[in-house]
Amino acid sequence: MIPKLLTRYVMWEFTKIFMISACSFVPLILLLVVTREAQSEKISPLLAVQALPFLVPKALSYSLPPICLFTVCVVFGRMSAEHEVTAVQAMGVHKSVLFFPVIVLAFLVSLLSIWLNDIDASWGFHGTTKFVNASFEEVILDGLRADGEFKRGNVKIEVDDIDGSRLINPTIVKQNDEDPQKRIRIEAEDALLVVRPKEGKIEIVATAPVLVHDGFELSIPGEDILEFQIPNNDQNSPFENPDHLYMSQIRTHKIKQLARIAELEKSNANIAAQQLLTGDLLALTNVAWETRNQELEEANHRLSRLNLVTPRRWASGFACLAFAVIGIPIALRMKTVNYTSAFGMCFFPILVVYYPIFETTLNACKEGTLHPYGVWTSNLLAIGLGAILLYRESKIS
Q1: Sign of torsion over alpha carbons 63, 65, 70, 76
Q2: In the chain, what are the domain boundaries?
Q3: φ, ψ (nearest 5 deg) of residue 204
Q4: What is the pLDDT of residues 327-360, one digit of tens each?
Q5: Which residue, 56, 76, 154, 390, is most buried by CB atoms nearer than 10 A?
Q6: 81-116 pLDDT per residue, tens
Q7: Helices 125-134 & 136-147, crossing angle to 10 degrees?
């Protein structure tokens, strides 16, 4: 009977502190996410706030691991400092009765974090992108009002002034997609900015534009319409980037990608065989083969990115469990109600060790130099170290 009461007590303490901590952490992280999104997308804070529903999953997924760590530091630090752990041992009950329920709860929070990561990477990302694209005219005008210029992707717009949607003395510079060193500069007396988000296009109706390219100038009398694609527009090809697929879509995309790779390899083998049979050895070393090899390499790279999606999101989610397993023994050992000290003792090593290892292994997995499940390295190290500390703590009477 006593272990059941203790289990309920510990679970209630964890849940209570977890909810209180979430009410403090989540708004702060959400503010940081909104600020970063406004800076990265170069949009006004007001627009970023309007996109808030799409940013909530990101804020929650970022918040859950530190909230788990903070909660276990508060709960077990207080229980240890107020000798509740000693009282439990005096009743002949093992310490594990106290921390196993919390580990189970941290496991469930990890599953929630995985789901939030999945929602953020897919629904959240595409929702934010669509919202920014729908408000892209306002995004451009806000940037021009603030800095006198706006740059996104391979397009840069500079103006002397703006009047509503009319640009005064605009200069538009467009880089070549294949060679960034090559660019076209368009100058005009004034121009009207029109954004068509449904078509994914930016139209600039320029008056008497002058096109400058490779040292040559071409003056166009009257008005001319200049068209550009909205950068990061995903209207026509949603969910093509593996990083922004739902995990439920990964298997289907992997099957299609494997079929595409097999088709490319078969095509390359047939072409090489024909060239060998006809004795056209020079054709085996021409530029066309560089294009074919590059296409095959890109297909294999996309497959490796698809293989990484699921392990990465599960590893990110299980940071909650890893942080909890590390935090429990340290909080028990410190025996202090000063939860900030226990939290700092845990979180500082996590910042300087856990996250650098996670980023290093993640980059190696993206490059294909490490197996996709290598992204679990930091979690396994943290859980392994935490398990050792928990075992030692359980042996202390």
Answers
A1: positive
A2: 2-135+308-395, 154-229, 242-306
A3: -120, 110
A4: 898 888 887 667 677 777 778 888 888 999 999 9
A5: 76
A6: 888 888 887 887 877 888 889 999 999 999 999 999
A7: 70
